[in-house]
Amino acid sequence: MRAFSFIFELSTTNSIHLIMNKETSKAEYASRINKVLDYIENNLDKDLSLNNLASLANFSPFYFHRIFSAIIGETLNGFIQRIKIEKAAMQLVMNPKKSITEIALDCGFSSSSSFARSFKEYFGISATEWREDEELRSSKICKTNDNIGKPKSKDSKEFGITSMYLYNESNNLIWRLTMIDKKELNVVVKDMPETELAYVRHIGPYQGNPALFESLINKLCKWAGPRGLLKFPETKIICVYHDNPDVTEDSKLRLSVCINVDPGTKADGEFGIMKIPAGKYAIARFELESNEYKEAWELVYGGWLPESGFQPADGLCFEMYHNDPKTHPKGLAIVDICIPVMPL
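Structure (tokenized):
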């Protein structure tokens, strides 16, 4: 008996009432992001805080910043700053009688000094030089726009959903994604039960530091082993990320390295107990090298999510590990990236 009873190409998913089809989902994401882009462009001197713009897009601030970056290709703050500077640069030329300070304030800068710093960092010349020296201005425009229209580098990634499955035994929906390098992975959306975790917490930078993760895992296992809490293969190593590294300063990032434990397990000093709430989660399985985690998260947020018919729900994002990379023939970690979701 085949494991999958139905195989659908996304072009036919309009007949499936369990989720919105690919084009409808993409259109909804585009609509929300476009609403934010329009608001920013027309309100540079208004409140452009993360909370305000996330509310406008009807996403939580935690997820909005990541979704914005994945779709637009810039961080939210970087986009806002660029739009402000480029609008000011245009006004400096088109409104020669308007003072630089007036233009700076109209374009959302808090002061002429902050504008002057930002402008010179972006173009490499002062706003006065930009306004008065046409030849110099033209050279800076060419340099700034040097990459416009050029093909993507060989290192850039493109990806998209190629098909969707309905798994017969569990009734879970599964998406297959194909990257430009022909690697494939599956994303499944399913209900997960509440899970009790024992954890050790780290506050501070962690990205690109596999030795830190190994140290925290070893520390947790040395505590859990004598207490009979390690029951491999049922026991899983789980990393819970409490903050968005695109928003939170590195020094304030919170990471919990965990193992799943039986309900009622007691906390012990620095080893705490927390719960992952029951709910619907998108689970993407990868085989990763230590330097590929960021790209994997971007693939889920930028490749799968906008076409899935789902959006992030409140809750914890986490990674669940299924092997010791040292035992893998290629030294890869088999890991699930898990995101709480709800229908779009």
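Confidence is low (pLDDT under 50) at residues 1-20, 142-157, 161-169. The longest strand covers residues 333-343.
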